[in-house]
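Exercise 7. Given the encoded structure of a 165-residue chain, write a plausible sequence.
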């Protein structure tokens, strides 16, 4: 039920978003959960790669992400462009997850609760953004993420196998 491609895209979006928030010195409460989310993504990706025999590839991805993290703030236009593109990357990760669910027609071990929490987080972040920074790029990102999180959750529920008693 999990797509490694989706997780890598999501990790990329999270890293860019964290760097953007940090670069513009936005209040910590606007991005506090992102280091935790990034750590969870990294651990999950590593576990999937380790148990599928691709642990060396995980090191390659780590080096690429580390280099990208430092390149993002070389120029202001780079971080601004990256922020706008990370919305598309994060949306692509959700669409890759949707495609995987549609192809397999099985939600497998995908947690509905996790995706429901993503819906809540996106909705809360819309409110937080309006109340603190009112950054249009960030606001658009969270509105798109809210819509896609609802769509993924609905798809998971659609393909959930019911247990026969």
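Solution.
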């Amino acid at each position: 039920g999990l797509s490694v491609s989706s997780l890598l895209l999501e990790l990329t979006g999270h890293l860019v978003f964290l760097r953007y928030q940090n670069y513009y010195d936005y209040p910590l409460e606007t991005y506090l959960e992102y280091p935790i989310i990034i750590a969870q993504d990294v651990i999950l990706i590593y576990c999937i790669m380790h148990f599928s025999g691709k642990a060396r590839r995980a090191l390659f991805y780590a080096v690429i992400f580390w280099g990208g993290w430092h390149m993002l703030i070389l120029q202001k236009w780079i971080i601004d462009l990256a922020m706008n593109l990370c919305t598309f990357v994060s949306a692509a990760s959700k669409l890759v997850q949707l495609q995987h669910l549609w192809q397999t027609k099985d939600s497998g071990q995908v947690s509905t609760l996790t995706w429901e929490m993503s819906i809540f987080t996106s909705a809360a972040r819309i409110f937080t953004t309006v109340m603190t920074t009112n950054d249009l790029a960030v606001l658009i990102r969270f509105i798109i993420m809210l819509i896609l999180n609802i769509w993924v959750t609905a798809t998971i529920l659609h393909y959930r196998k019911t247990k026969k008693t």
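Remark. The chain has a mean pLDDT of 87. Students should compare their own answers with the one above.
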